[in-house]
Amino acid sequence: MPSTDAHSDPEWTVPADGDVWSHTTVETNGIELHAVTAGPEDGELVVLLHGFPEFWYAWHHQIPPLAAAGYRVVAPDMRGYNHSEKPGGVAAYDIDELVSDVVGLVRAFGRESAHVVGHDWGGVVAWQTAIDRPSVVDRLGVLNAPHPTAYERLLRRSPAQLRKSWYAFYFQLPWLPECSLAWDDYALLDHALGEGTVRPDAFTRADIRRYKTALAQPGARTAALNYYRALFRRNARRTLTQGGVGDQPVRVPTLLVWGEQDDALDVRLSEGLEEWVSDLRVERLPDASHWVQFDAPDRVTDLLLDHLP
Q1: Is 290 among the residues known to form the active site?
Q2: Angle formed at CA 180 by CA 52 and CA 176, multiple of 5 degrees
Q3: Which helix or strand (DSSP H or E) is residue 2 part of?
Q4: Are 125 and 98 contacting, i.e. CB atoms less than 8 angstroms apart?
Q5: How much is the average pLDDT of 57-62?
Q6: How does pLDDT run across 215-244, given as a tens digit for each residue?
Q7: Nearest alpha-carbon partner for 118 in 192, 58, 34, 161
Q8: Which H or E run contains 233?
Q9: Is 228 a catalytic residue?
Q10: How many H helices and E strands in the chain?
C-alpha cells in the first residue's frame, strides 16, 4: 500500500496542502513515485497523468471537484519528475515502462482498473495504456495529446506539423537541451507558461515558480527529455522493422479535449480518430491553448465529470 510522505517546502507546496489532498509515495514497476491523493478511499479510482515539463500540480484545478464528486483521485509525479524516482538511462523512459508505471499505480491502490486521464505526455501514456492494457482502463480521458498512429500519419503528410514538432528533434541532442531548459532561471518556462496561453493569467507567478522548482530537482531535466529520446528511438526502430507504428485500436470509452490554439500540435490531430477509437467523444475548445486545463479549468472539469460514470 502507498506510504504517506509529508513535504513542507513552501517553494512547491500549494495552498491548502493537507486540506483537500495529501502526499504519498507509491511503489510501482520497481520504482517509487510521489503522488497526491484526494477523495474517498472507496471511490472509483481516477489517475491523472501530467505532461512536459510539469508535475502533479498540473491538475490542481481538477483534483478538488473530482474528489468532491466522490472519486478517489491519484495524481502522480511521473517517473523522473519532481519528487518521483529518476532512473538513469534513456531506456528507463520507454513507453512500455511508463505504461507499466500506470498499471502498477492502479494495483498499488488495490484496484484492477481505473479511469485514466492524461495531458500532453501524460496523454501519450494514457493512450498507450488503453491500447496495450485495455483491461486496466475503464474510461480514457486525453487532453491535447495525439493518438500515436494519427500523429505519425500527420508528421509524414504535413510539413506544418513537422515544423511544429521541431523541439522533439532538438531534444534528441545530448546535454544542450538540458542547458537550454535551465538557462536564465528557466526562462523557457516563463515563455511557455506565461506567454503560451490564451488566458493571460492562466498560470500565476506562483504557479510558474512551482514548475521551475519541480524541474530544477536533481536529474529532472534529463529524465523529462529522455521521454522524447526514448520514444524517438522506439518509433525509429518500428519504422525500420515494421514500416511505422501501425494501427493501434482503442476499445474503451474515450474523451478527447483539444485546445485549438495549440502551438505544438495541429488541430487536425483531433479529427478522424474514429478509425482507431470505437467509442469517442471529441470536444474542441477554440479559446484554449495547449495548456487547456489552465486556460479553461472549469470547462475541462465539467467535461471530465460528464465523461466519467
Answers
A1: yes
A2: 105
A3: none
A4: yes
A5: 96
A6: 999 999 999 999 999 999 998 888 777 777
A7: 58
A8: helix 220-242
A9: yes
A10: 11, 9
User: Which tens digit of pLDDT belongs to each residue from 80-113?
Assistant: 999 999 999 999 999 999 999 999 999 999 999 9
Write phi, then psi, for 291 (nearest 5 degrees).
Answer: -85, 60
Percentage helix, strand, coil for the chain under 3-state DSSP, each rounded to 5: 45, 20, 35
Question: From the candidates 101, 120, 207, 295, which is the catalytic residue?
Answer: 120
The torsion angle over the Cα atoms of residues 156, 172, 178 and 204, rounded to 10 degrees, is: 20
Q: Which of 147, 290, 295, 307 is catalytic?
A: 290
The answer to whether the CB of 57 falls within 8 A of the CB of 214 is: yes
- Per-residue pLDDT of 244-286, as tens digits, reads 777 899 999 999 999 999 999 999 999 999 999 999 999 999 9
Q: Cα 175 to the chain's mean position, in Å? A: 23
Residue 50's Cβ-side half-sphere holds a number of Cα atoms within 13 Å equal to: 29
Number of Cβ atoms within 10 Å of the Cβ of 195 = 9
Q: Is the dihedral of CA 280, 306, 58, 262 positive or negative?
A: positive
Of 57, 71, 93, 228, which is the active-site residue? Answer: 228
Q: 115: which strand partners? A: 46
CB neighbour list of residue 244: distance below 8 Å, 6 or more residues apart? 152, 238
